[in-house]
Specification:
The complex is a heterodimer. Chain A contains no helices and eleven strands. By secondary structure, chain A is an all-beta fold. In chain A, strands 2, 4, 5, 6, 9, 10 and 11 form a seven-stranded mixed beta sheet that branches. Chain B is mainly beta. Chain B starts with a strand and ends with a strand. In chain B, strands 2, 4, 5, 9, 10 and 11 form a six-stranded mixed beta sheet that branches. The mean pLDDT of chain B is 93. The chains are: A mainly beta, B mainly beta. The interface between A and B is medium-sized, with 27 and 25 residues.
């Protein structure tokens, strides 16, 4: 069964550094998302992406965040200048259509020191 | 603002028992409700998606119900097995939210052999 893949599984970075989290959504899916989960807290929406543009973003998704679909398969989340509070598990998700189930990757655990 | 609550936060039952997990939401104007399973350090696996017009969905030993007017959903697990041990999350997709999910905090389920 096709699945969403995320790399790396774990990223450690120093405060102020840029990180890029990578995702390969399922190939025939059209809607892409990033969510994050700080340890012990609820999953939070960051951004949704459709038709090569952001369709919605949360208050968390400020100017230090950006997303890109550089080619037909990858979907990336960039954090320009990481802060300690960015430490979290970041999940990529995709789905074929609105109102169809979301498929999640296994996540990237980002640790900012 | 939509709030999603899951009770109990944790549940431990002997193997073989049937059990019910609860999810409530404050705004009944939802598009759908999804139940997910999260294993430690892993991604989120979609279990069931219930459209707002549906009352229940079944998959194997799992049955999810939706009562939109009262803002409640239940996930029924029949004949529980140790492999069912995980955190179960519910998430609602609001009408007009541009497809972002609002998440509960989850119920951590332990099935004792």
């Amino acid at each position: 069964e096709p699945e969403v893949t995320q790399t790396p599984s774990h990223q450690v970075t120093q405060m102020g550094q840029e990180v890029i989290l990578r995702c390969v959504p399922i190939s025939n899916h059209l809607y892409f998302y990033w969510y994050r989960q700080i340890l012990g807290q609820k999953v939070e929406f960051l951004v949704s992406f459709y038709n090569n543009e952001i369709s919605e973003k949360s208050e968390i998704f400020d100017d230090q965040f950006s997303v890109e679909r550089p080619d037909g398969s990858n979907f990336t989340l960039k954090i320009r200048s990481t802060k300690l509070e960015d430490s979290a598990m970041y999940f990529c998700a995709s789905r074929r259509a609105v109102n169809s189930p979301l498929h999640f990757g296994n996540g990237t655990r980002l640790t900012v020191t | 603002k939509q709030e999603v609550t899951q009770i109990p936060a944790a549940l431990s039952v002997p193997e073989g028992e049937n059990l019910v997990l609860n999810c409530s939401f404050t705004d009944s104007a939802i598009y759908n409700l999804q139940w997910f399973r999260q294993d430690p350090g892993k991604g989120l696996t979609s279990l069931l998606l219930i459209q707002s017009s549906q009352r229940e969905q079944t998959s194997g030993r799992l049955n999810a119900s939706l009562d939109k007017s009262s803002g409640r959903s239940t996930l029924y697990i029949a004949a529980s097995q140790p492999g069912d041990s995980a955190t179960y999350l519910c998430a609602v997709e609001n009408l007009g939210s541009n497809y972002q999910l609002i998440w509960g905090a989850g119920t951590k389920l332990i099935i004792k052999p």
